[in-house]
Structure formats: structure tokens, C-alpha cells
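Input chain follows. Return C-alpha cells only.
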Amino acid sequence: MEQINQIIDWIQTNITLTLINDIGIAIAIYLIFRIMRNKLAYVIIRMFKRKVKNKKEIKANSFYNPLRTFFLILGIYLAVIFLKTPLNINDWLMLLVNKLFRISIIILSANGIANSLTTNNKVIYRLKEKMNPDVEDSMFRIILKCIRGLIYVIAGFLCITELGYDLNGLVAGLGIGSVVITLAAQDTAKNLFGGLVIFMDKPFTVGDWIEIDKYEGTVEDITFRSTRIRTFENSVVNIPNAVLANESIINWSRMERRRNKVNLCLELNTPIEKVQKVQDRIKKMLIERDGIIDDTIIVRFDNITDNGINLLICSYTDSVDYASFLHEKEKINFKIMQILKEENVELAYDTKTVFVKQ
């Protein structure tokens, strides 16, 4: 009974009508921000997205949920600030409240920025198209994940700083740890750097036909660690990006035209008039073909060899695909053989005349 009387005396002494009013006002501040947080978040995003009329699109913004949480925390923070004097909250506790409020702002800001770094973001997509429109979405997503991870790491360091911890010892420890990790994962680091080089220089993309020192085929996938190529034998080879970054790469898919070169060796006793006629007919035949680029046609009396008269035939075709190029080349060869047959001109053979001394 005595304890109950003590509690009643304490309430009568400390709990006054003014304190009850102050607590009611603090609760009202919190409830106002809790009720209005959705509207406040919507209005702020609407200020920066004036062209957007769709409410669902605004609510889908990466900063919408962090802003809602921020206004809820802001309501609690302002309520505590208001009750500081009535409840005689000491300075140490208020310092902790201020630190927690700043930490919440750091975390929510990092969350909003990180969530905005997606391929669905129009600004990020336009930036990607401007920097490297041919980069694969899978690789671009990996890059964005790395950036998001870095943002959270920075936010973590800022939070630790706000709590008053000295980062010098932590940084020194991370420095020693990073040396150990680097020594243990040198190849991985090289491959990651090679993937970044491929992303920046874009020597090839998925679907390209490439050739390097030992391999030739079609690129199927590009990651930060390796590039997968399907060879013409239908096997799959994964080449580390560190190797690709240091190799000379031939990208056959980047060709705008293909060269077709033929050397005809006519017999030495072929009349010069026949050589000129064959030359003119072959040139005319190439000009009449739709797949041949006219200003690239070369048909010249190139050289006189031990075996015969060399006629150089060179032209470029717009048939970039290898199969269509071979088809076009075959037709040209048939036409050349037909012209030689009609003009009764024979090709020379590799022969040698041996003189025997009596």
C-alpha cells in the first residue's frame, strides 16, 4: 500500500496538465507526419517529375519508399525534440537521437540512389546507350550491382563515422586484408579488369564472329570473368577476359565488304589480243553483277612468270556473310571459266624444262 502511495505522489508531483498537453502535442506531431508521409513523398517526387502524370509511375520511383520512411522518422525526431524540455531529456540521450537521425538519412539516401541504378531507369538507360549501346544487358546489370554495392559500403563507413568510431584502425586492417585477398585472387582481378576493358573498348558484342590466336567462333556470352565462344566445330570455349584483353582480336562481323582475289596464270603462248579480250570480258562480267562493288574492280595484266602470264582479278562484294560470300565467289569462278573456254584460252601449269648436256 505504501508503494502505491509513493507512485501516486510521484505522479502528482511530476505529471502535470502542461506535461500531458506537451505529450499530446508530440503524439499529434508524430501522427501528422505518419498520416501525411505518403502525400509528402508524392509531392516531392512530383516536383522533380513534372512531366509524369501517372500516379503509379511516381509511386514506383526509387525514392518514394525511402521518402515515406524519412517523414515517419522525421515525425518521431521532431516529437522527441519537442519533449526534450518537458521530460528533461539529458544531452547524452539527445546526442544519440541526433546521431540515429543522421544515420537514418544516410541509409535512406543510399537506398534511394542504389534502387535508382537499374536498367529500367530511363536516365541510366540513356547513359548506357550514349556510352556503349552495344553492351549486353547482363554485363550492364553486373556493373550496376557493383556500383550499388559500393554505395552501400560508403554509406556503412559514413554510419560508423557518425557513431564516433575511429576508422583508421579499420582502414589499416582492411589494407592488410586487401593485400592478402589480392595475392590470393590476382587472376580474378585481372579478369575483372579485362571485362572492364572489353566493356569500354567494345571490340565485339554477343553474336559477333571473332578470331583470336587459337580460337575462332561466335560470341555467346560476355561476363566480367570470361567470354564464351562457340567454335565452328560446335564446341564451347570460355576464354578469360585477361587473355582477351592482351590478344589481337579479329572481328569478322565488323566487315563492311569482302574481297575476292583470283590469280589466273595463262599460258605463255597466249596471244596478247586474247589476253586483252579475256581481261575486258571478265571486267565487264564483274560490273554486271549486282553483288560486286563497281569502283573496287581490278582486272590487270599483273606479271610474267616462268610458267605463264599472270592476270590479277580483284573485287569486293557486299556479301559479308561467309556462306553468301562463298556462293557469290563460286558464281564468279564459273563465269571466269566459261569466258576462258569461249575464248579458247588455257591455264598454264607449273612446268620446268630440263636440258641434258650431251
